[in-house]
Design brief:
The structure holds two protein chains of two kinds. Chain A has one helix and ten strands; from the N terminus they run αββββββββββ. Chain A is an alpha+beta fold. Chain A has two domains: 1-35; 48-155, Immunoglobulin-like (Sandwich), CATH 2.60.40. In chain A, the strands form two sheets. In chain A, strands 1, 2, 3, 5 and 8 form a five-stranded mixed β-sheet that branches. A five-stranded mixed β-sheet of chain A has the order 4-10-9-6-7, with no helix packed on it. The longest helix of chain A is centred in the first third of the chain and has 27 residues, at 5-31. Chain B is mainly alpha-helical. Chain B has a domain at 20-51. Helix content of chain B is 84%, strand content 0%. Chain B has helices at 2-17, 23-49. The longest helix of chain B has 27 residues, at 23-49. Chain B is rod-shaped. Chain B starts with a helix and ends with a helix. The complex binds copper (II) ion. Copper (II) ion binds at residues 76, 102, 137, 141, 145, 148 of chain A. Chain A: GO terms for molecular function: copper ion binding; cytochrome-c oxidase activity.
Chain lengths: 157, 51
Amino acid sequence: MHLHRLEKVWLLIGIGTLVMFLTIVGISAFAQGHHPPSDLTTLDPQKVDTTEPFNQPGLKKIGDNEYELVIVSQAFAFMPNDIKIPEGAKVHIIVTSKDVVHGLEIVGTNVNMMVTPGHVNSLTHTFHKPGSYLIICNEYCGTGHQMMSTKIEVTKA
Amino acid sequence: MAKEFISDKKEQEIAQKKEYSLFGTFLSVLMLALFLILSWFGVYYLFIQRL
Ligand SMILES: [Cu+2]
């Protein structure tokens, strides 16, 4: 097969990009342990209220400026409602759903999770800047979906 | 008539052997590559900013 010289060049660029992409994904997944934001823990969605740690949603201090934030989502609200976190705190967010699929996004941060019933999802985020952070549900979950939001207040240390 | 036909065929062969210039196409491909690479870095920059 005859290929034009320039055709060979852009084919090489394309193949090179593919090899580079797969190498980066491979190293980050297998050597560095990166994975999509999802937890492998499961629970009975009908027994959320009696299952640890979701029987007590809220903020728990677990270390030096390190917290565990347990959130329960249901149509159309997040529990707890008002969350106050000190500036610079490292927060492990743990969330599940009692009914349908919800989303948990903290606007302006990398926190963006899918919350599926029967599954626990978790993510760690450090709040560097004080201020008000909006939490929204970004998976359509029913007629009240647009009202499903809450706020995190990050207070000056 | 017959002579003319042969010379036509010869010209066709010559035209087929000649390589077309693909420089414009090549430039377009490189521009697309640049756009993709810049988008990747843009997304990565956003991720780093929001850490
Ligand atoms: Cu929702």
